[in-house]
Amino acid sequence: MKFLKTVMIFSIGLVVSSCGFSKENNQDFDSERKIVPTKVITREKVLKCNFEQGYIDFCSNNYLKLYNDSLNKKANFDQNKVALIIDKERDTRKGIPRKIKYFVVLDPTTKRVYPLEQSVGYFINDRLEEIATKPSIIKFNQNNNKVCLSGTTFSYQDNNVNVENECYTFNPNDNSFFKKVQKEKIIKYENENFPISFDKKKFMCNGLKCKENILTVDRLKEISENDKNSDLRFLINEKGFDTTYINASTGNKILYVLKYSEGDSEQQSIYLSYFLDGLFKTKALGEVKSFKIDSGQNVYFNGIKVILN
User: Fold this and answer.
1) Is the dihedral of CA 31, 32, 37, 43 positive or negative?
2) What is the pLDDT of residues 236-246, one digit of tens each?
């Protein structure tokens, strides 16, 4: 009887031991199957960690975490990139620290990070104090590769007070990744020619005979920024030295009045040329009997006001 009890106890022990061993093995197997998360973006993926006197380390652990956490964000820049704005306090140990913003581009495909060297802070007053109601602005969108900054910029080599729309284009294939967009120089004319009128087959500017320039290919390129303009090329090719023009521009509103004769006729015909929404346009007015441009740049041809559209 004792022998039978001993055999039964031993058998139960084997079963329990077998179950425990199986469970432990399964636990070990499951642990091997677990995927251990790894960092996708490391320091090596950040194209520039520091800029001269930039007071920021784009490769620090907290920013690496920010980049990795942002990999699954919806694209908001340059079609398929993710743009991030980093808020930072710029403290040079001289004067009051400034609240500034940095712009960073993250490419989720290549896992590369492209920081913009330029930073921007609040607009400031005459005492160089931040204007609390005028924070810096960074504008960008998914449809293009341009970012524009407004405020006070702090780059070591390029810092300016109260800029409006200082823009950069992003290109990962360029050495610097960002290229500053040079603003077109706006020429403002202080025109003392007004009023301009047509009297006795002559243009009169403020009571005196207007200075007329002969329209040539070079002149056309100069005034229109495009010497391929078909209407004006026709005037040059067909009318030769008979075509002249006067400058009726004022402020930043560009306007030229062109005059020519048909064949041996003494009758004068007029074209207007001007910029509208960045495009150089021409408008044929025809044979002139009366003509006037007032100080507001309103044009009247043969008694009718001309709309420049």
Assistant:
1) positive
2) 555 544 678 88
What are the structure tokens assigned to 267, written together? 């009758």
* Number of separate domains in the chain: 2
The DSSP secondary-structure symbol of 298 reads -
Instruction: Using pLDDT thresholds of 50, 70 and 90, give the confidence band for residue 180.
Output: very high
Range of the domain at 203: 196-306
Query: What span, in angstroms and rounded, lies between the C-alpha atoms of 54 and 155?
Result: 7
Which residues contact residue 16 at a Cβ distance below 8 angstroms, ignoring those fewer than 6 apart? none
| Listed residue (3, 111, 100, 91) closest to 47, CA to CA | 111
Look at residue 22 and tell me if it is in a domain: no
pTM of the complete model: 0.51
Q: Is 28 part of a structural domain of the chain?
A: no
Assign 128 a pLDDT band (cuts: 50, 70, 90): confident
Residues in the chain: 309
Number of helical (H) and strand (E) elements in the chain, helices listed first? 4, 18
